[in-house]
Amino acid sequence: MKANNIFTDPGDNIPENAPKTICLLQLTRIGDILQTYQAAEIFKQQYPHYKLILIARTRFAHPLSFLLRNVFDKTYYVDQHVLKLDSSENLPDLVEAFKTIIDNLKNESISVLLNLSFSKSSGYLASIIPAEHKMGLVYDASNNVAIKDKWSQYIYSNVMGGPLNPFNLVDIFKSMLGHNLPALSHPQKPFKKVSHILLHPFASHDKKMWKINKWEEILYQLLKNFPDIDISIVGSPEEIIYGKGIDDSPLLQKYKERLHNKIGKTSLEDIYNLFDNIDLFIGHDSMVGHLASIKNVPTITISLGTVRAKETSPYGEKNYTITPQTNCFPCFPQDKCEFYQCHFDISYQVLYSSLKEYMETGNITKEYQLKNSSCFHLNAVAIYKSKLSPIGFLQLDNILEEKSSVNDVFSTLYRISWQFILNNSEEPQKFLLLSTKSHQILLNTLNGLQHLYELSDFGKKYSRYILEEISSSIPRIEKIKEYSAKIDEIDSLTKLVKQTHPHLSPVIDFYTVQKGNLAGDNIVELTESSFLLYNDSLNAISVLYELIEKTITEHKTKNRITDTSTEYNY
């Protein structure tokens, strides 16, 4: 393992009067790299004079080099061996590899390094890369995790932590890059009759994809009922075996001349160029959907298993995402599941009905679906339509429900709160129509917020007591220890509130991460930071409390408490 562990795209030499350089570190998979690309594209349109550098894994980024060079001035491809930090083998070679990385990057004069992948490998790599400022996860001199900026703290505490994160990753990344960056707006195309569909029926894990027999039924219905369409299927070489099953399907033999199996035969650049002649993308949550959105091709996505639709849906307006209303959806990668209930909760009938309406009208509507699909099937799903909010953040609205599920209610309320807390922005939202269950849980959550407010108030008070004791003429160490013990007790009680009121996890986890990253090098500075943190926590709790109160008041005024016998998302 020598200097070939990291190499760059060929590029011009850096001039002496080089502009400010921003470096993005993204070591996760292709889908995350594409969402990073979209955020960087938004930034570059607003600030074309900045130099952007990307550091990514060779395996995932190099196949995208044709696209990345459109936005990034230079891309560094890191060899996989450099990232195996848990292995003690070949330690001298590992040290040499890291020295090579530093030598390659120290001449870049990086102004800001943003670590967008929250792993041990990326954290250590971010720690050794020379830069004036660093955002995201890094390790300090004591080998402790250090996350200093608020949006990175938000990612660490909320993304992939549950179903309540309301933001798409593109919007989170663009918020880290610059405050209130506009959305990347593609010109809206008039609806065009669908003549060529691209299907990618695969995903990175079995949890996230249907069995191929369901897709065979969809293909059969489309090809039979729309005689003027062609369908191309793409996938990786590892997925060729599934393509053989489609080729050999008795259902599809009659339509083989209009069914084009390109599985294992196309590169990512080939797929990207193929979208020039595609009218609609259908598939699971995967990198192909992100390529479609970059090409401004409409998408209809099936989200299953561990997928957080609001985080990873294709970024753009008027895309559709179908999710199950299964209690355990979304789950976590480590969760064992012998029977994928969420796969069964989205029937092929619902997807076909949605496709049929879209191909006829360019839209998917509640009225059409209620008329053409059974209520039994529709009650088990949500169909989201994407739009851009007035301040340029992607938003998914469920077209099927007038009354909102519990998770959608809290996601919307957190969306308003986080915009105010993190971006100092106001994002207008309509009052939500509540079901009986949503109404009851909101009422119960007010009690949890009251407890949380009292605990934060006590934390602020005892932080002040410590500061007063330290500033006294003769500080009493026993008093400082007593007040510190009270703060530890407050932290323990906060964990109990989280267990009792799980819908408060986002705000509790966020301020827990903040407390683990207090600014200061001594007890005075740390206590001052603690005092300010508890004060910020009080403000955030107050905002959320007021939003819930107003939502409940509006609900009572309109007297729209309804039955929730068909609501599955808790």
- Side by side, the strands of the main sheet go 11-10-9-12-13-14-15-16
Instruction: Determine the structural class based on helices, strands and strand pairing.
Output: alpha/beta
Radius of gyration: 26 Å
Count of beta strands: 18
Number of domains: 3
Average of the residue pLDDT scores: 90
What is the count of DSSP helices, taking H or I runs of 4+ residues? 21
So what's the overall shape? globular
How is the quaternary structure best described? single chain
Runs in which pLDDT lies below 50 for 5 or more consecutive residues are: 1-7, 10-14, 560-570
> Portion of residues in helices?
40-55%
Q: What is the second-level CATH architecture of the largest domain?
A: 3-Layer(aba) Sandwich
- First-last Cα distance: 51 Å
By CATH, the superfamily of the largest domain comes out as Glycogen Phosphorylase B
Short précis:
With 570 residues, the protein is of the alpha/beta class. The protein is 46% helix and 14% strand.
Keywords:
Rossmann fold, 21 helices, globular, 570 residues, eight-stranded mixed beta sheet, six-stranded mixed beta sheet, alpha/beta
Structure description:
The protein has 570 residues and is of the alpha/beta class. Helices cover 46% and strands 14% of the residues. The protein folds into 3 domains: 3-177, Rossmann fold (3-Layer(aba) Sandwich), CATH 3.40.50; 196-400, Rossmann fold (3-Layer(aba) Sandwich); 436-558. Strands 11-10-9-12-13-14-15-16 form an 8-stranded mixed sheet, with helices on both faces. Strands 1-4-3-2-5-6 form a 6-stranded mixed sheet, sandwiched between helices. The protein has a two-stranded antiparallel ribbon with strand order 7-8. Strand 5 (110-115), helix 5 (120-128) and strand 6 form a beta-alpha-beta unit. The radius of gyration is 26 Å and the shape is globular. The model is unreliable at 1-7, 10-14 and 560-570 (pLDDT under 50).
